[in-house]
Amino acid sequence: MVDVRTLPVGEEIEGRLWLDELAREGARRMIAAALRAEADEYVACFEEELDGDGRRLVVRNGWARERKVTVGSGTVPVRAPRVNDKRVDDEGKRRRFSSRILPAYARRSPKVSEVLPVLYLHGLSTGDFRPALRDLLGEDASGLSSSSIQRLTESWQDEHEAFRKRQLRFARYAYLFVDGVNVAVRLGEDPKVCLLVVIGVREDGVKELLAVEDGYRESEDSWAAVLRDLRDRGLNEPCLVTGDGALGAWAALRTVFPGTRVQRCWVHKTANVLDALPKRLQPRAKTLLHEMAEAPSRADARKALERFRSEFDAKHPKAVAKLDKDWEQLTAFYDFPAEHWRHLRTTNPIESSFATVKLRTKVTKGSGSKNAALAMAYKLLDAAQQRWRRINARELVADVLDGVMFKDGIKVTDDQTTQDEKVAA
């Protein structure tokens, strides 16, 4: 161990900065002091317990063999104090002192253990773990091998299986977001797996991952199986589902949840419309499309559509037809609270989270197998949901679930309903 008191500031010792050695030496001393204090406190608690000859039953008993432990500041040598506990329990078994700071056989801190799956999931190849972490955690960093990652991926498959069986009847869900993405795998007949993902918005406004399943090219049968499984596990009929217009989910939705409204994703629709226009016209078209999606009322959105029609229908009717075809589904969000619109117009929670899935599979050139791809995607999305924003004005989610009517984002009162009925008459 380097004597840090003799090191000149700023010089490198064996290729490592003095500051890194200082941090590791500080960590070693702090761990040693904490372990001594823990053992001394344990012994002090039972100092009055004596055997028949008046000797203490619990005493310090030297030091355990030195072992190397990897912590956030690096890998440090540690010798834990031993305690000789001669007491016996009611069943005649010897009691044992067990350190809560450094459990038996522990070789790395929980925080370091958490780093491994995070780095793997966000793109670091298993073969790169040693060289990437050597300088940070030291040459003797334990448990940073590819076999550790293999064990992690196996445990993720077990977690995903438990996730697929959990009950959903204990919460109500007002909104769902659905989407699919193709993920490459290295094994099997089909080189790609289509992941079908469902995210729900609970009554408390929290977005929650509900399903990560594989399907055949986002077909109606595949989506129907996913939605039926959610229903059978207790999912209530949602009020609105947002997704891409190309999904087979819509036909499946009419079968499984026939009373649910449909909202087409504006991000997907914008891309589809722009594909039907030459590049020189796309900036102007994109501006008008944003005006439609962000209009304060359904009538204003219609006016923006007509402006788009007047400019592009003559020479590019296909672009306009894409909007006319799905206009009712594109503007369904106007019948829900205005505070929720920014969430309901797109499948952004899934899209942004899938970026990490695609990065992971790109680095590894596939996920190895269908089950591995599913488990990896589940783990990524499960981690991502901790960062998902709770929906705005969450107190209004309960109103939506209770059937309260909204017009252009504003709650419809009894007086407004009566007035509208008189006008219609």
Number of strands: 13
Indicate the multimeric state: single chain
Shape: elongated
CATH class of the largest domain: Alpha Beta
Which homologous superfamily in CATH is the superfamily of the largest domain? Ribonuclease H-like superfamily/Ribonuclease H
Biggest β-sheet description: 5 strands, mixed
What does this structure look like?
Helix 4 crosses helix 14 and helix 13 crosses helix 14. The protein is built from 16 helices and 13 strands. It is an alpha+beta fold. The chain has a 5-stranded mixed β-sheet, sandwiched between helices. A two-stranded antiparallel ribbon has the order 1-2. It folds into 3 domains: 108 residues, no CATH class; 166 residues, 2-Layer Sandwich (Nucleotidyltransferase, domain 5), CATH 3.30.420.10; 98 residues, no CATH class. A hairpin with a 4-residue loop joins strand 8 and strand 9. The radius of gyration is 30 Å and the shape is elongated.
In brief, what are we looking at here?
The chain has helices spanning 18-45, 110-121, 129-137, 146-165, 220-232, 249-256, 266-275, 282-293, 298-312, 317-325, 327-330, 341-344, 348-364, 370-384, 395-401, 414-424; strands at residues 12-13, 16-17, 58-63, 67-71, 74-78, 81-85, 173-184, 192-202, 207-215, 240-243, 261-264, 406-407, 410-411. The chain is of the alpha+beta class.
